[in-house]
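In the current project phase, our protein records have gained a structure token line. A sample record follows, to show the layout:
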Amino acid sequence: MKNVYITKTGHFLPNQPVSNDGMEKRLGMIDDQPSRARRIVLRNNGIKERYYAVDDYGNITHNNAQLTRETIKNLCDLDFSENEIELLSCGTSTPDNLLPSHASMVHGLLDTKNSIELNTASGVCCSGMSALKYGFLSVKSNSTKNAVCTGTERVSTWMQSRKFDKEVENLKSLEEQPIIGFKKDFLRWMLSDGGGAFLLESEPKGENPLRIDWMQAYSYAHELEACMYAGGDKNEDGSLKPWSEYEPEEWLSKSVFSLKQDVKILDKHVIEKGVTSLKDSVVKMGFQVEEVDYFLPHLSSFFFRDKLYEELVKQNIKIPKEKWFTNLGAVGNVGAGSIYLMIDELKNSGKLKKGDKVLVIVPESGRFMYFNMLLTVC
């Protein structure tokens, strides 16, 4: 088995950053009314800027495959070209199509002369880590000499106000409050477009190569119902009714394809299960958390930062806050791409030195999945 190193990183954030004050202008107001949730959510999540693949007039500038293509373009240079890619493994929550796969659509945009292996990982935030683990195992087992892994999102077009017009009309016809539910409006002020890419190789090339020491994944779907979902809606018993079982007119009138999150379930479980999984990882892998030099938690919101710290202390995993690293405030919550953006920024920050240990955790509220990873600077 080979060692596996992240030898190159790249990222892409579309257009100019959007401030908190500019969000509603860019996404639009639902029913021409300012959102009641916006200020509350923004105050709690601590995000100052985010990126959208739409312009000031609501026109789409990039689809997800194009965003991913740009991250790979920024990864490649004179030392490694697109034509040298042996495996392309892509993770996203927001593919452009139900099928073909996201990786297939990205491959169609690349400058490759030969057939390559493809993998697409679906899900929510952990889809980027699932894509990375596929590449990690491929290089580790010597199935391929390299792998390009990506995590990207293009969620802004899901959040545009016009996507909720039919639902608002339906609510008005029923003489109900013509504002979409908090579980949908909440996410309009949380998410961002963009992503990153890693090149994995079996030799520690370049500046600050990061050896992937281990990756551990956990799912609690056997215990918990779905928390974040799209393309369906919840039944009273907590099960999901898929889009294919709705009548076509309901897809619009009920905003079936919108992103939704059950915030009560989120707050109750997401931190506790995440720390439980991390504790299992460090015990299983025989790792001492005192060795951590940088701790990279994927946070959907700064609202969870203190809660995470308190739960870590409670479960005797003490990582001082001065070792924490995040860029959430500057780039927003990019879902599957967030951890790629954090690692890319840290790797190129000039802060790392040989031997540093980087501990990574990525939670996913879809149905409570978690990834933990340890990196060593070589």
About this structure: The chain has a mean pLDDT of 94. The chain is about 30% helix and 20% strand. Residues 44 and 255 are 26 Å apart (CA to CA). Residues 263-284 form the longest helix (22 residues).
